[in-house]
Design a protein that fits this description.
The chain is of the alpha/beta class and 333 residues long. The protein has helices at 22-35, 174-180, 214-226, 249-255, 275-278, 292-299, 312-324; strands at residues 57-68, 71-78, 80-81, 106-107, 123-132, 146-149, 163-168, 186-194, 204-210, 233-240, 261-267, 285-286, 305-309, 330-332. The chain folds into 2 domains: 10-194, Elongation Factor Tu (Ef-tu), domain 3; 204-332, Rossmann fold (3-Layer(aba) Sandwich), CATH 3.40.50. The protein binds flavin-adenine dinucleotide.
Length: 333
């Protein structure tokens, strides 16, 4: 049982010549749907009604878990807002919520069936508008803004359509300030998924990432390792500053027990003091920056699809390195 992607109405298009336009996104979504890229058994419903690239949809914040000093894992779950104000709130980033209704009711279903339509490595967009459960919208006195975040959860493995995001909060930056003020049971708005990466079984990946650039790699690795029929090989090079900055450290250590996964972590600002005591079994940690030489050593001229994710400057630098080493099959998130 599947729902088709919701078709946008003429009013959903802002007419400003956006690229991609909301109708392009719809066509792409239909194609993805028809090609079966989001696979589900006949009994599982793909919930395009709860997460759509075309309209912002409400999600309630259920949990905040500290990952390190400035990164948290936020758990969100879709909710239904009775008055469909989300119709006023389409893909046009400039549009704001406009409603005079101060008694907007939300329905928080304990149990939501089906799966959200995002794939490993895809991202969603969050808007800086929040609503307190069963009350009206909070007046956000700042300009409308949105930011991308990559679910670290696997849509097909989560119960009740829960979506988990690993988010780094920057001091005094706009979206970070908005997110840092969120409280449990606040409702925020997402649209998505976006992003062209599609994992193909039995691939050979060399992943290069820094900081929260681990976010798209993590669900791809998990997808591979959880599927015994997928013989993909993964080499991860993860650049961080210090031990405290290593995200999903225990998970990476656990993944390293699998025959087809190896990780190397590069710490650019860690001292050698007490290094041996801080390193854990199965960890390969280097006290150096991730350099061209380090990459060359790990790549050993083997054939890989290269995946890169970090800041803009990190992506440029790493792309440059691997291109110089003769790699052409490169995907930058
Ligand atoms: C496809 C995609 C997926 C993403 N996924 C995640 C995710 O899973 N988790 C996560 O925490 N973040 C993710 N991000 C980043 C996220 O969208 C926000 O940029 C981040 O949350 C900061 O938002 P902000 O408004 O608080 O700060 P911003 O105003 O965006 O600035 C944050 C910091 O980055 C610096 N900065 C801003 N733009 C650039 C640039 N172009 N180059 C270098 N430095 C810059 C600023 O100086 C500042 O220090 C993703 C971004 C993209 C494009």
């Amino acid at each position: 049982m599947e729902t088709l992607p919701e078709k946008p109405s003429e009013n959903d298009c802002c007419g400003s010549g956006c690229n991609p336009c909301i109708f392009d996104i719809y066509e792409k979504l239909l194609k993805t749907h028809k090609s079966g890229n989001i696979s589900s058994s006949s009994s599982v419903k793909i919930r395009y009604d709860l997460l759509s690239p075309l309209k912002y949809k409400p999600f309630i914040l259920l949990n905040i878990q500290k990952e390190n000093a400035n990164c948290n894992i936020y758990t969100f779950k879709p909710v239904i807002v009775c008055n469909d104000v989300t119709n006023d709130f389409n893909g046009n980033e400039q549009s704001n919520f406009t409603t005079n209704d101060t008694t907007l009711k939300t329905i928080v279903d304990e149990c939501i069936n089906g799966i959200l339509p995002y794939l490993p490595g895809q991202h969603v967009i969050m808007k800086n508008v929040k609503m307190v459960c069963n009350r009206n919208f909070e007046n956000v006195n700042t300009a409308s803004l949105s930011r991308s975040y990559t679910p670290v959860s696997l849509a097909q493995k989560e119960e009740n359509c829960v979506m988990k995001l690993l988010i780094k909060l920057y001091d005094n930056e706009k979206m970070s300030s908005f997110i840092s003020q969120l409280k449990l049971f606040d409702i925020v708005f997402f649209r998505g998924p976006f992003g062209d990466f599609r994992h193909i079984k039995n691939s050979k990946y060399f992943m290069i990432c820094a900081g929260t650039g681990l976010a798209p790699m993590y669900p791809i690795i998990k997808t591979i390792l959880l599927n015994e029929e997928d013989e993909s090989i993964v080499r991860l090079c993860f650049a961080c500053q210090t031990f405290e900055d290593i995200l999903f450290r225990e998970e990476i250590r656990y993944f390293s027990k699998f025959w087809n996964f190896k990780a190397r972590i590069y710490l650019s600002r860690e001292s050698t003091n007490d290094f041996n005591n801080r390193i854990r079994y199965e960890e390969r940690i280097h006290l150096q920056k991730l350099t061209n030489d380090a990459l060359q050593k790990q790549l050993r001229n083997e054939r890989f699809k290269i995946l890169i994710c970090g800041s803009e400057s990190f992506n440029k630098c790493m792309t440059n390195y691997v291109e110089k080493l003769g790699y052409t099959d490169i995907f930058v998130f």
